[in-house]
Amino acid sequence: MKEDNAQPLSEEVLKTDAGQAPAKKPKFVKTEKTPVEPFDPEALIEVQHLTKSFGELTVLNDISEKIRQGEKVAVIGPSGSGKSTFLRCLNMLEDPTDGYVFFEGNNLCDLHVDINVQRRRMGMVFQQFNLFNNMNVLKNITLAPVHIGVGELRKAKRKNFFTKIGNVFRGKDKKKPLVPVETSAKQIKAEANENAMRLLARIGLADKAKVYPSTLSGGQRQRIAIVRALAMNPKVMLFDEPTSALDPEMVGEVLELIKELADEGMTMVIVTHEMGFAREVATRVMFMDGGKIVEQGPPSEIFGAPKNDRLKDFLAKVL
Ligand SMILES: Nc1ncnc2c1ncn2[C@@H]1O[C@H](COP(=O)(O)OP(=O)(O)O)[C@@H](O)[C@H]1O
Ligand SMILES: [Mg+2]
Predict the structure, then answer these.
(1) Minimal CA–CA distance to 45: which of 65, 20, 21, 30?
(2) What is the pLDDT, as a whole number, of residue 226?
(3) How far is the CA of 271 from the centre of ligand 1 (A)?
């Protein structure tokens, strides 16, 4: 469990002075946040002074970084260096302690920005294939698109309902226009099904649409988790060690699919231990250590001519 790693304040820290009673740990510490800087409109994702702490432990330490459309960024580094936390901060699965994340120019740390709307455009695939085991494959893929499509339809209908009522009382030239509603829940479901079947056919699993995930191999499940993310039409895909939980013979099929997406131009950030894959597919490799991006560059430089000693050390262990 992650919680086990949170370091409690030690008596030493709590004691203000020798002999005095320990000071109470403050419930809420107000910290001044770093001011927002103008974002780069060219960047798909821009991270400014990103810092994340769990209690006393600083896991991400003032990271500023930009990811442009079409880039394939591989994040490498030793265990515990903050790779997963970095990825999770990009789509706000973790709240940054300080700093900001911009996605398509929207500051995700701004409470006025609807994080759910933004997050839909960032597909996330974890180490463990997070499919719902109580739903068949098709339902797994269509669940989110249908939920969102139908939700938006209802919202539009509700809005029109109140506009119509209001229009009764408005003068002839003052009537407000209605939101065009050109679809139905049935149509949304049919389209989502069609799209899901197309995606399943693409990965050669169309015949598995009606089966439950537990009957599939790890490689098949992870490929379905990937197309499930694709069904939301993401602008970027975030992968957190997508092959680490797989039996070795299934790693290839998953990497192959990710490589295909990369070749098609999908922007991606991928935390991986597959150095060969990073070398082949990434346009940029970031090496993280101790909550910082210690070195980064094209794969040829990172793997061929590493400069930082910790990177050299790391590569010596993993290559
Ligand atoms: N929810 C959490 N609570 C406390 N500590 C955490 C939590 N998540 C991660 N950590 C700690 O943050 C550090 C970085 O973790 P992580 O981002 O998962 O590293 P990596 O993915 O590079 O292995 C580790 O020391 C880990 O124990
Ligand atoms: Mg991790």
Answers:
(1) 65
(2) 97
(3) 14
Q: Find the largest Cα–Cα distance for the chain.
A: 81
Q: What is the DSSP letter of 276?
A: H
| 3 state DSSP class of 41 | coil
Residue whose C-alpha is closest to residue 278's, from 4, 95, 74: 74
**Cα(36) to centroid(ligand 1), Å:** 26
**185-205 pLDDT, tens per residue?**
999 999 999 999 999 999 999
Mean pLDDT, residues 16-33 taken together: 50
- The answer to whether residues 237 and 229 touch, using CB atoms and an 8 Å cutoff, is yes
> Which amino acids bring their CB within 6 angstroms of ligand 1?
2-3, 5-6, 54, 57, 59, 77, 79-85
CB 137 within 8 A of CB 205: yes
Cα gap 26→23, rounded to integer Å? 9
Q: Which residues pair with 238 in a beta bridge?
A: 124, 269
Would you state the pLDDT for residue 23? 53
Q: 177-183 long-range CB contacts below 8 Å, 24 or more apart?
A: 181/153, 181/156, 181/157, 183/149, 183/153
- For residue 20, give Cα distances in angstroms to 11, 26, 29, 36, 194: 12, 17, 22, 41, 70
Report whether 291 contacts 60 (CB < 8 A): yes
Q: Structure tokens of 315?
A: 């590569």
**Separation of 125 CA from ligand 2 center, angstroms?**
12
Q: For residue 75, report the distance from its CA to the centre of ligand 2, in Å.
A: 10
Instruction: Look up the pTM and report it.
Output: 0.86
Question: Of all protein residues, whose CA lies closest to atom 10 belonging to ligand 1?
Answer: 2
Q: Could you tell me the CA-to-CA distances from 21 to 11, 25, 59, 240 in Å, in that order?
A: 10, 12, 30, 45
Q: Which atom of ligand 1 sits closest to the CA of residue 94?
A: 1
